[in-house]
Amino acid sequence: MNQQKISRAEKLAIQYPLREYQVEWIEQIYRAWNRGKRKVLAQLPTAAGKTVALSHISNDYFLTGKKVLVLAHRLELVEQAADKLRSVTGVEIGIIKHGFEAHLERPIQVASIQTLTRRNLAQILPKVGLLICDEAHHATARTYREVFDFYSDAAILGVTATPQRQDGQGFTDLFDVLVEGISTTALIKLGFLSPYKLFVTSNSISTIGVKKSQSNNDYLKNDLALAVTTQVSLETVLKNWYKFAAEKKTVIFAASLGHSKAIASYFSGHNISCEHLDAETPEKERRAILARFSRGITSVITNYQILTEGYDCPNIECVYCLRPTTSPTLWLQMIGRSLRTARGKKHAIVIDLTENWKTHGLPDDNRQWDLSPVSLSEDDYVRGVIKCSCCTHVFRCNLDSLKPLSVGINNDGQIIERYQVACPNCGAVINFEKIESKRYQSLLRLKNSVHPEITEIDLSVAPERLKSVYDLIITERLKQLPSERAYKSIFTNFIITLAEFTLGDWREIVKMIEPDRQVPSRQAWQLYLEGKTRHQNRIAALAHLKRRQLQKLAANGDPEAIASLKQLDLEKKSNGVHNSSQIALQAQKIGERHFAETYRSQWQLSLQQLPAELCEFLLDNAGLFFVDLSSTIAQISIEVKPAPMLRKFKQKEVEIAFSIGFKQPVHLMFRINNSYE
What confidence score (pLDDT) does residue 409 get? Predict the structure, then answer.
């Protein structure tokens, strides 16, 4: 290596020094390559500095005269990677993307995967020494595979915070080895990531009945959007933001494009600087919106499926989640946006109105990653995935990428498609059929209204309390027992103080009892709730005993006992009156005024198409709650007072009526406002 190159490397190390964990991560990658593992998948948590580390690796290849190609799948990721590489290496970076001038002579190229696969690779970039795939959990797509196959001699490095797939497939056919980086827990303790506060509700958004995609097992966007917008009002979203994140730089993850736009409009109407962003936002406008947010001109960004990956804005203070998902990858990517450190930022705020945090855990939970496929649950199997008869592995295959071996029709007139696929776990050949579903007239789709009372979940730990639990575990040898018996022993020994145990305490206890358990927050939450219930039952039992004692004394004429009983009765009655008044306050309106006024004529025309009985009922007892006309199929939620007669009518006939009224196809759901019961 000549003197000029040595000087470049030394200058790079001074200007962009690597942290110790980044150095170890890079060394692990090089060790894998040196062992002949050409295709390396490397994991590092969100906001841990993957791009800087990759820039150092790219610089190494540049100094040896080898070309580098970086793949990304979104504009922001392309531009961020190019900017960081330019800053770190000190050389101009080529960008291969529609709308950018190509400079193919430059030694380091950042390419949009969509643009790259539409070009002739043999002509524009016939050979590279290093191929880097950003957000590599997407690398299973056909487009990435084609690029991987073309550069068959290059060292390949896939990077992601979450090497996990939703279809039970795995990464063994794409990568040779997995390199795991430092944990999120360690990064928070070292001060490289921000600590966070968690705000959730026990009355969360329900996804019961929401259909799932056959390709990735996540909720279908139209079904999900309708369920979310039916249950939670825009007013509720705003009130919770005011209460827990007012004036905090916030990213809101909405359930659909229309939902995101509606939130932005509602916030703006209440004098909050809020803007909407999605994949359809023009590139120039998208850059301007993100720039205003970064500078603090815009306080809140609402988005749909655009800021979930790679967006680098250190001073995000709050993530507000209204998007349920079955994907732990998506969940961790969303909340990871808030964990970057920034000057003056003491902690991040995570507000979750969904079940995501309970289902997928928290960002600093223990997680063990693996290239091997992870079997789906039997519940998912019932919903249409495949179970291998040889190894019992459960997985989902993408039918869009398969051609049926044959197509036929059964005696019921349903189309039958026959397929063949290899099990990703054992390789066995599996034959299966896809049968066209029968059409049927379903009843009206109903969802209960959600009025989430958000509270902060205490994630702190009490060292003295944990020491007492640890001493019990050692003296009673609880680790040698089944976990259920060990936890039961802890409940019994700490029954008096169970109410003081925080979720943070229980997370640490789970790690003591089950050190190999992944995502301990799920188990910790169940133990936390059980502990609360056991404590409350104990208090109730003691109160019952006390009342019985007072009743005996009162029967003998004891004046103090008589007075105490009267006081207890007054307190009970007072609580009942308070609850009734709260319900009365909630029951003052039906529907949302903005949508009712905006779509008054469409509402009236739609009702005229309905059976007279239903039309008359809805006229007096219902109102438009949410309307989204941004796509070809309108999403409409109607708030209605509870009534048994709603069960008499069919979903299809109501949707047809509203399709006439709104002059486009309609998906519709009723929101039952139970405060009118």
Answer: 61
Longest dimension (CA), the chain: 103
Residue 597 burial by Cβ neighbours in a 10 Å radius (0-12, 13-18, 19+):
exposed
Cα radius of gyration rounded to whole Å, the chain: 29
Q: Please indicate, yes or no, whether residues 240 and 153 belong to a single structural domain of this protein.
A: no
Domain boundary among 500, 530, 555: 555
Total count of domains within the chain:
5
Report yes or no: 78 and 311 within 8 Å, Cβ to Cβ.
Answer: no
Q: Report yes or no on 453 lying in a domain.
A: no
HSE-CB of 357 using CA atoms within 13 angstroms: 28
Residue written as token pair 């044959």? 406
Alpha-carbon distance 278 to 561, whole Å?
66
Sheet holding 454-457, edge to edge: 274-278, 300-304, 250-253, 318-321, 348-352, 196-201, 454-457
Q: What is the pLDDT of residues 164-213, one digit of tens each?
A: 877 667 888 889 999 999 999 999 999 999 999 999 998 899 998 888 88
Q: For residue 2, what pLDDT band results from cuts at 50, 70 and 90?
A: very low
Using the predicted structure, report yes or no on whether residue 5 has a pLDDT greater than 70: no
Clarify whether residues 145 and 212 are in a common domain. no
Tokens of 447: 């969802």
Residue 643: burial class (beta carbons within 10 Å; 0-12, 13-18, 19+): middle
Tell me whether residue 62 is in a domain. Answer: yes
* Same domain for 120 and 56: yes
Q: Are residues 265 and 174 part of one domain?
A: no
Determine the Cα–Cα distance for residues 16 and 159; give it in Å rounded to an integer: 20
Domain match, 395 and 486 both: no
pTM, rounded to two decimals? 0.83
Q: Are residues 171 and 29 in the same domain?
A: yes
Number of Cβ atoms within 10 Å of the Cβ of 212: 20
Asked if residue 633 and residue 489 are part of one domain, the reply reads no
Average pLDDT, the chain: 86
* CATH at residue 123: 3.40.50.300
User: Which among 117, 120, 106 has a CA at the least distance from the CA of 147?
Assistant: 117
Does residue 569 sit within a domain?
A: no
Give SS3 for 590: coil
pLDDT tens-digit map of 577-607: 444 434 333 444 789 988 999 999 999 999 9
- Burial class of 440 by CB neighbour count within 10 A (0 to 12, 13 to 18, 19+): exposed
Q: Which domain holds residue 470?
A: 465-555
pLDDT computed for residue 583 by the predictor: 35
- Return d(Cα 541, Cα 548) in angstroms, integer: 11
Q: Which of 215, 518, 175 is nearest to 372 (CA)?
A: 175
Helix (H, G, I), strand (E, B) or coil at 662: helix
Tokens of 253: 């993850």
Give the pLDDT band (50/70/90) at residue 390: confident
Mean pLDDT value across residues 460-467: 95
CA angle (179 as vertex; 176, 183 as ends), nearest 5: 150
